[in-house]
Design brief:
It contains 14 helices and 25 strands. By secondary structure, the protein is an alpha+beta fold. The radius of gyration is 24 Å and the shape is globular.
């Protein structure tokens, strides 16, 4: 079939969007101007919410077995460990995946490419999107491949093409924000020393500088991310990895045996003014970029893709009204703005040379961190925020209803058994307790899969109400909830949006 959607950019965001469309049998084309997948990696962290999405595609275990579970954060100040935070089971009972994993972006992309191959999809490398314009029926895109231009028509265009996005420039979307003045380095190395461990992340501070150390690729390889000391950036001579190694060994009490990769970069924080214009969408770094604080960037882009993918598929296949596409921007832009603001404040605390911030990170933070180990409430809040399972769309037009504390728009709470059903990647009804014949007949007539679960202590603890109807979106968020088996209200919600299950 003729491709109906063009995905520009084959990084993790574009590949995740492609997987979503492939699973829903929507024909598309995915291109990238590079000659092949990346061979270096800046993005490392894979968060539990991302793993939950991948579990819906049934390949999350590749990251669990191939990645390195981060089980703790250790804080070192001037060569001495001052505090540590246990992470290994911090998400116990909240998600199947209880802590972040270290998994390099280039390896990450290889996993996604392998999954796409199972759907018979290949990325068209060495292909660039030059321009596009809307027509009465869709968009006409000008592509260039190996120097040859061609015009091709699509219904929609998705810009997953990074911070310098051609799609964003084409739709003339502003990209307000700024750039941090500090210059950063990233280095993969073989090293030993007290801050380095096979399953831990170390935050090391010395004077006004800091470095983050975490395992990468194997337990004996370490990724270092930090800020250059002033005396290096102030000098006229070129900064080399050798100079940096000498500094790191002295400042952070480590012994570097070998450097595998070294790069420098600047950090930006920006959010596009719009995430959509007409038939063009901005996804991932094309829509928002932020500091590396918390390892949120790549995971947020994948979350964008999972939000947009099922909506595009539904509209293209005539299984939902076009109005649903408006909810992509309202749901994802609000989160991106909050994230940029939060990571900016955290990052500023970490890199600022103001006395108050220096005092906080070297004296106050090491005293506060151990308190989280003794507080279940603090640990839960930290996990909810860091893991991205706390992302909600309660203010979206697509969210309707509330029962007790569970409001439409939140991610479906995890009970230990209900997430198996989400692998269908489709609309479905969940009931905790029995379902009456009227609801069963309605679901059968509408092609909706109905799942009934025990209303037990686990369900009650997660906030579910016995007998309530929960209509779950393909991405695992609750779309509609009602306290009793009111089929008429469920029918009205589905009719208002024109919802037809993908596989019904």
């Amino acid at each position: 079939m003729k491709p109906q959607i063009l995905i520009a950019g084959a990084g993790p965001t574009g590949l995740a969007l492609a997987l979503s469309l492939a699973k829903q049998q929507v024909p598309f084309k995915i291109i990238d101007q590079e000659s092949g997948p990346g061979e270096a990696s800046r993005a490392m962290a894979v968060m539990p919410r991302t793993l939950e999405f991948y579990d819906q595609f049934n390949f999350a275990d590749e990251f669990v077995t191939g990645g390195i579970k981060i089980e703790g954060v250790h804080v070192h100040v001037d060569g001495k460990e001052k505090a540590h935070l246990d992470l290994g089971s911090i998400g116990e009972g909240i998600s199947r995946f209880t802590s972040p994993y270290s998994f390099p972006q280039d390896e990450h992309e290889k996993v996604l490419l392998k999954q796409l191959e199972r759907y018979g999809v290949e990325v068209e490398w060495n292909t660039e999107l030059l321009s596009f314009h809307e027509t009465d029926e869709g968009t006409m895109a000008v592509l260039v491949c190996d120097g040859e231009e061609s015009e091709q028509e699509f219904l929609y265009i998705c810009g997953c093409d990074g911070a310098s996005s051609a799609v964003r420039h084409q739709i003339q979307a502003g990209f307000p924000g700024g750039t941090y003045e500090q210059e950063f380095y990233v280095m993969d190395m073989k090293a030993v020393g007290a801050p380095i461990g096979s399953h831990k992340l170390a935050m090391c501070m010395h004077g006004e500088e800091f470095v983050v150390l975490l395992p990468v690729r194997s337990s004996d390889t370490t990724r270092a991310i930090g800020v250059f000391p002033d005396y290096m950036t102030a000098a006229d001579k070129e900064i080399t990895s050798e100079n940096l190694v000498d500094y790191m060994q002295s400042a952070f009490s480590i012994d570097v045996k070998e450097v595998n990769w070294f790069s420098t970069y600047k950090v930006h924080h920006r959010v596009a003014e719009v995430f959509r214009k007409g038939r063009a969408f901005l996804v991932g770094d094309a829509a928002h970029i932020h500091s590396p604080a918390g390892g949120q960037g790549m995971n947020t882009g994948i979350g964008d893709a999972m939000n947009l993918g099922w909506k595009l598929a539904a509209v293209v296949q005539g299984k939902m009204k076009q109005e649903v596409l408006k909810t992509y921007e309202t749901e994802r832009k609000a989160f991106a703005e909050r994230l940029v603001d939060t990571t900016d404040r955290v990052f500023t605390r970490v890199v600022s040379k103001k006395r108050a911030n220096r005092l906080f990170r070297k004296r106050i933070a090491p005293l506060l961190i151990p308190l989280a180990n003794r507080s279940d409430r603090a640990r839960k809040k930290l996990f909810m925020t860091l893991s991205q399972v706390q992302i909600e769309y309660t203010k979206s037009r697509l969210s309707r209803g509330k029962v007790n504390e569970l409001q439409a728009g939140i991610r479906l709470p995890y009970t230990g058994e209900n997430y198996e059903a989400l692998r269908a990647w489709d609309w479905q009804v969940h009931v905790y307790g029995g379902a009456n014949s009227e609801l069963r007949d309605f679901c059968q007539d509408r092609g909706l899969v109905l799942h009934t679960f025990k209303y037990d202590s686990a369900a009650e603890k997660r906030g579910f109400s016995g007998g309530a109807i929960y209509l779950v979106r393909p991405d695992g968020h609750i779309g509609f909830v009602h306290p009793d088996r009111d089929v008429q209200r469920l029918q009205k919600y589905m009719d208002d949006w024109g919802i037809v299950p993908f596989h019904g």
